[in-house]
Amino acid sequence: SKPINNLHFLLIPYLAPGHTIPIIHMAKLLAHQPQVTVTVVTTPVNALRYRPILDKPGPSVQFLELPFPATEATGLPEGCESLDTLPTPDLALNFAAAVDMLQSELERCFETLSPPPSCIVSDKYLAWTADTADKYRLPRIVFDGMSCFKQLCDHNLYASKVLDGLRDSEMFVVPGLPDRIELTRSQLPVEFNPSSRTTGERLERAREAASRSFGIVINSFEELEQEYVNEYKKLKGGKVWCIGPLSLYTDIDQDNDKAQRGKIGSISEQECMKWLDLRERGSVVYACLGSVSRVNPKQLIELGLGLEASGHPFVWVIRAEEVERWILESGFEERVKDRGLLIRGWAPQVSILSHPSIGGFLTHCGWNSILEGVCSGMPMITWPQFAEQFLNEKLVVQVLGTGVAVGAQSVVHWGEEEKFGVKVKSEDVKMAILKVMDSGIEGIERRKKAKELGKIANRAIDEGGSSHMNLKLMIQQIRDIMNLNVFGG
Ligand code: UDP
């Protein structure tokens, strides 16, 4: 009989923009491949929000919309189906539990999926998808929206005893890495923090689920972190496919903006571009701390003052209400009106970063933001907040040499903002900005490196580029095991 060539990928993202957007891009990318069908599993509110990306011309991707569990079962407000729309951060665990409930919804309609799925690609946090995959005898691929650098740090820290008995502020070196990466425990993601048990258990489950999976897709490209990719492949026995930067696969400039209909910013993309058109080439700093981090208002004020003191024109994305009051009452907006553009709410980040007037990116070091900065050839000012962002900072500042740190010392835990005084000062922000925007030798070198990386990123996804080849390889390996299962038993 004939070998199986038609594949149906079921993609299951975690319900947060930083997790869903790259998976949708991956869906579009897969759908471009011959004999491949793709379904993205999500919920009605998210389907509405992200539909504009899928509706772009090109091969079709369908959404499977599972009803989000009811308020009585979750303790979440009606319609709150994405992590970034939680009214308070302490609901994050309720939210994670609600997402777990989607398992039974998915399995209820599994048999009706047509053609029958051949592979599940799931966000690493959705451990239950490994059980679903086992139940239906399908390979599961873990989607990790992070770098191999992060994977390797994670693995080595977990496998070693380097953290045993370490105080929060004590420096240590991450063992077994190609570079000497020094951190303190308080800069590590919560799973390495003994006081955060609940999250720890969740991650433990994710880790166990990953160990049962067929392989892992990484939203990165090999040239960015070649030594780390090699090491990580050795560790995983080869089934590691770097297929990014995924944001480059569609004309996301428009998609990204339109996909946020539920979250409209205070100014339109056109207005924003018009404002940037009037500035000098490479003169503007773009500052944005991501979609979910809740930054202490006192720290946001230092950020605003630092931007002001740098003397550079800037675009600043703000979301916190407390800082809004300060902006109005302190006269900040009035003082900077000639050179500061404030965006309240959602900014068209990718379009902004691609504008020639932008010369530096002040980022919280979320992985998508880092990649978007890399793709547009940006030197970066790094201000990590939580999760793996301090690791990402090390990669950018130390390994890639394209960033300058503002000097943040520790993760800010959600719900602990009150305890948190002013740590990073406006002076630190100003100095880091001046360094990155500087036209001396160091600044020029940094910019050159960043530009070069941007070019390499864009080549990786071209026909014959490393990410393109890895995608083909992944698809082939799935076809191979399908045929083995059918013909070889
Ligand atoms: N983003 C955006 N506009 C905003 C804030 C965020 O377009 O005002 C996008 C950003 O381009 C990125 C994603 O949201 O693609 C955020 O992901 P990231 O991993 O950087 O950080 P997270 O928000 O998950 O902490």
From TrEMBL:
<dbReference type="InterPro" id="IPR002213">
    <property type="entry name" value="UDP_glucos_trans"/>
</dbReference>
<dbReference type="InterPro" id="IPR035595">
    <property type="entry name" value="UDP_glycos_trans_CS"/>
</dbReference>
<comment type="similarity">
    <text>Belongs to the UDP-glycosyltransferase family.</text>
</comment>
<dbReference type="GO" id="GO:0035251">
    <property type="term" value="F:UDP-glucosyltransferase activity"/>
</dbReference>
<dbReference type="Pfam" id="PF00201">
    <property type="entry name" value="UDPGT"/>
</dbReference>
<protein>
    <recommendedName>
        <fullName>Glycosyltransferase</fullName>
        <ecNumber>2.4.1.-</ecNumber>
    </recommendedName>
</protein>
<keyword id="KW-0808">Transferase</keyword>
<keyword id="KW-0328">Glycosyltransferase</keyword>
